[in-house]
Amino acid sequence: MAAPWSPFAATVTSFLFIRSRSGLAQSRVVWKAAVTKQRTVAGTQLLRLLHSTSPTQKKNVATSGRNEYTVAFIKKQIEEFNIGKRHLANMMGEDPETFSQEDIDRAIAYLFPSGLFEKRARPIMKHPDDIFPKQRAIQWGEDGRPFHFLFYTGKQSYYSLMHDVYGMILNLEKHSDLLRAKDLLSQKNKEDLIGSRWLIKEELEEMLVEKLSDQDHMRFIQLLERLLTLPCGSTEEEYIQKFRRTIPVQSKKKLIEPLQYDEHGMAFSSGEGKRKTAKANVMVYEHGSGRIKVNGIDYLLYFPVTQDREQLMFPFHFLDRLGKHDMDCTVSGGGRSAQAGAIRLATANALCSFVTENEVEWMRQEYSPLSI
Amino acid sequence: MALVPALVPLLRAGTLSKLHWLDFLGKASPWTSQPSLRMYGSVPAPGIFQQEDDNLQDKILSEPLKHSDFFNIRELFSLQTLFDARVHLGHKKGCRHRFMEPYIFGTRLEQDIIDLDQTVKHLQLALNFTAHVAYRKGIILFVSRNRQFTHLIEKLAVDCGEYAHVRYFKGGLLTNAPVQFGPGVRLPDLMIFFHTLNNVFETHVAVRDAAKMNIPTVGIVDTNCNPCLISYPIPGNDDSPDSIKLFCQLFGMTIKRAKAKRKQMEFLYSLQSKQTSQETPPSSSQAQLS
Prior knowledge:
The complex is a heterodimer of chains A (372) and B (290).
Chain A: H1 2-21, H2 71-92, H3 101-111, H4 128-131, H5 156-181, E1 196-198, H6 201-208, H7 214-229, H8 234-241, E2 244-246, E3 260-261, E4 267-275, E5 278-285, E6 292-294, E7 297-298, H9 299-302, H10 306-318, E8 326-332, H11 336-351, H12 357-366
Helix pairs in contact in A: 5-7, 10-11
Chain B: H1 3-14, H2 30-33, H3 48-62, H4 79-84, E1 89-92, E2 104-108, E3 111-114, H5 116-135, E4 140-143, H6 150-160, E5 163-165, H7 177-181, E6 190-193, H8 205-212, E7 217-221, E8 232-235, H9 241-277, H10 283-289
Parallel strand pairs in B: 4-5, 4-6, 6-7, 7-8
Antiparallel strand pairs in B: 1-3, 2-3
Helix pairs in contact in B: 3-9, 5-9, 6-9, 9-10
C-alpha cells in the first residue's frame, strides 16, 4: 500500500514545503494532524488537502441562513420603512410627522385593496421589528471567546437565570438563619400574589429569546416558588414581580341599569343586542298592551314570518309578561332572522331592569341564548 | 490517507522555523491569524513591525516552556492540605473501578484510601497544564453533573473568567457545535471535570466527546470512576464538599495566576522591545525577566 502512495507523497511534501516557504513568513498557518484546509492561491494549481476536517473549520451551508438578518440589514430596513412612511403620508395628503401605524394600515388597505380571506396574507407595512423575528447576535468576540460564561450549555439565558435565582435563595437562607438565631423571623404575607400569575412558557421563551422545554419552565417556576417561601427583601420582591403577570379581573355580574322615566312619568328601560351583523336598540315601557314597533313599523308588517315574531315574544313569554309591556325598537344590519335574534337579546337586556335579581340569574341559566 | 498524518511530522521538522505554535495547543485559530493569513493574490511585503510582533509573541509563548514549574504550582498545596480536605477518602471496596487500583493506597474497613503521593504528582501535572493553557488564553470549561456543587462551580467560572457546563449535556454540543451554535464557534481548549460521573453513575458523555474532538481533559477521578480517556486524571475524592472546595480554590488560583503572569510578560516584553527600538541598553528589564 505504501508504494503507490510514495510519488504522491513526494509531490505533496515538495509543493507544501514550497508553499510554506514562499510567503507565509508573516502568516501563521499551522500544520496540525487534525486540522488542515488549503485555500487555492490564484494562478497555482494546488491540491485541496482536507485531512480530517475539524467541524469548526468547515463552512456549513445549512446554517448560513442564520446570518440573514444582520444588524446592518435590520437598520437599513428601519430606515427604508421610515422614508416609506413619509412618502405614504404625502401620497395620502396627510402630515408625515403625525402619521401613526393605524393611519398606515388604513392607507395600505385603501391603496392595495385585497379580498384575501387570510388576514396575514394581505399587504402590510409595519415596523421591521414587528416583522423580522428577534435574532441572537453573534455570541463571541474577535478572539473567539464567548461573552457569556454559560455559553457552552446552549441555553445561556435560562441557566444564568436559574443560577441567579438560586444565588438569591442561598443568600436569603443565610439571612433567615441569622434572623432565626436572634428570634427576629417575621411571617410572610401572601397578599402581593393575589390577582397575578406566573409567566407561561411562551412568555418566558419570549423574554429569554431561547427555546425552552416544558420541564425547564416547570423547574423555573418551582425555583421561584421556593424563593417565595423565604423572607424576601424589597429587591427580591421587585425581581419576582418581573415574572408575574396580572390576571384581568372578569366581572361576572351584569350591571342592571335602574329604570328611567320619560316626560309622561312612564317607566322605561333600554337595551342593546347583537346577532351576526344585526344590531338592535330597544325601549321597553312598563305599562302597555304588548304593542311592538320595529323601525317605526308594526312588527306584524316588519316580520311577516311567524318564526321571527315568536323570537320577539320569547323574552316576555319567559317572564310571563306577555301583554304587559310596550316596545319600541330600532334595528339595522343582518338578515331577517338575525334582526329578530338581535331584538330578542336587546329585549332580554332591557327587561332585566324590571325584574328581580333572582329572575335575571334564572334567565341567564335557564336559557343561554338569551346571553345576558 | 493513513500516511498523511505520518507526513505531517516530516513537514513540521522541515519547516519548524516558520511554524509557530499558537496560543492554545493545536487548534489553528483563524482569529489570531486572520490579519496576516494570505488567502488570494500575491504576497505583500512583510512589514518590520509585524516581524517584531511575531518575535515578541514567540518569546512570550516559549518562555514558560523552558521551566519545569514556571507558575510555581508546588507552593499552592501540600500533601497535608489534601489530607485535611479529605481528598484521600474513596468509596467502598465494592464500588471500586478496576482501573483505579494503581491509585489506591489500601483499604480500611472496606473503604478505599487513595494514595496521596500519587495524587500530589498528578495534581501538580494537571495544575501546571491548566496554568499553561490559561497563559496561552485558552478556553477552559468546567464540567460536573453533581447537583450539590452546581452553584459553586458556576461561581468559580465567573470568578476566573472561564466557562462552566454543569447542566444537562446536550448530545451534539462538542461534536455538532457549528450546527448548534453557528459556524465559526470556538470549542474549549481544556475541559476540567470535577465529577467524571453523571447522575446515573456512568461516565460523563463529555469525556468521550472531548477525546473525539482532541480536547485535552483534566479530571478528578474517584475510586468508582474510569480514568481512561482523561489526559490528566487526578485520583481524589469528589464527594465531600471540603475536597471539592479545595479543588475549586486550587484551579481558580492557578488560572488567575497564569493570566496575571501573561499580562506581566506582555508588559515586560513590550517594555523591552520599546527600549531596544530606542537603542538604550535594556539592563534593568532583563534582570526582572528570569
